[in-house]
């Protein structure tokens, strides 16, 4: 069956009640048929649920769908995107290991690499996402992982996945990519050799700004280690959130088509506006990596970043004059959301670090929702006018 069909039709085994929609298995633990059955499950001699920190039918249904969409062998569901990012690395790397990562990263991932991992002597070297020819120079004998985000948050820069896959293979590195902005509807990094695909499911996978969630899918041997780490440290996804996320996957491809259609129309209109200095959208021909984006992405994604004329004051004034768009730092929602990265998601970076990843003081990041794009544009134009 095609991926869209599988995303809808994959489901936990029907119970004796013959339900059509998957039930929510809101239970902390599972009963055993006997003491011997409990022992066999704990000894992993037979398959079966024991405790929801280890696994639950809802989290497993969610992972079944996601790993299928990403074309990966296995996966584990996490309570948040950040616990997925953290566990996917902490489970596999040891003290003394080194990561090569693109500097264009989500703010909390940057803090993880620069403030948390160094506590355990795991170091990281940053490279420029748009200069793949420089990546190899950053690889040391103790480098274990290549970590990328593409498109990046919020600069919408693109990593060359073909190059990354080949480089990781040549140096025996674990190629780990945060695919949250693209989703598997737009790109499947495992096709390029990614060993792990990391997600914040809080974004487009949920798609309605309701729950937090995350996942790592990828190579079976690596996921096994991540599963053991996560079962012990406890960042597992709740069954309720898993149920929501699994249901959301049923509509993911349909939603992504509309997000991307709207985003492209809006990006094209903003590009013509004289109150805007620049617009960044992967499928706009003016994007410096337009050709690469076209090569490896099926659509341009739901995010558009742009810089209003007049710096930080104008950007704030513009945001304050919006009537319909939601001023919130989440993204991937059915409602269009807007945020000012320099003072929110990326405020922990130094000014030069922000500029290195293309975040200027006047830049706003918009996650284009599913509304009629003309209404979104109307709100943007009236706020631009009032903020003059
Ligand atoms: C690219 C990216 N990765 C990871 C995360 C972290 O996800 P969560 O907020 O679900 O922990 C985010 C959150 O905004 C993100 O944008």
CATH architecture of the largest domain: 3-Layer(aba) Sandwich
Q: Regarding CATH, which class of the largest domain?
A: Alpha Beta
Mean pLDDT: 97
Helical stretch tally: 14
Helix and strand sequence: HHHEHEHEEHEHEEHHHEHEHEEHEH
List the helices and strands and how they pair.
Elements: H1 3-9, H2 35-42, H3 57-70, E1 74-78, H4 81-90, E2 98-102, H5 107-116, E3 123-127, E4 143-149, H6 161-170, E5 174-178, H7 183-186, E6 196-200, E7 214-218, H8 220-233, H9 239-249, H10 252-271, E8 276-280, H11 290-296, E9 303-308, H12 311-320, E10 326-327, E11 337-339, H13 351-356, E12 363-367, H14 373-386
Parallel strand pairs: 2-3, 2-4, 4-5, 5-6, 10-11
Antiparallel strand pairs: 1-7, 6-7, 8-9, 9-12, 11-12
The structure holds pyridoxal-5'-phosphate.
Word description of this protein:
The strands form 2 sheets. A 7-stranded mixed sheet has the order 1-7-6-5-4-2-3, sandwiched between helices. With 388 residues, it is of the alpha/beta class. Helices cover 37% and strands 15% of the residues. Helix 10 (252-271) runs parallel beside helix 14 (373-386). Strand 2 (98-102), helix 5 and strand 3 form a beta-alpha-beta unit. The mean pLDDT is 97. The protein has 2 domains: 3-249, Type I PLP-dependent aspartate aminotransferase-like (Major domain) (Aspartate Aminotransferase, domain 2); 252-386, Aspartate Aminotransferase, domain 1 (Alpha-Beta Complex), CATH 3.90.1150.10. The chain binds pyridoxal-5'-phosphate. The site of pyridoxal-5'-phosphate has 15 residues, from helix 4. Pyridoxal-5'-phosphate binds at residues 80-82, 85, 106, 108, 149, 153, 178, 180-181, 200, 202, 212, 214.
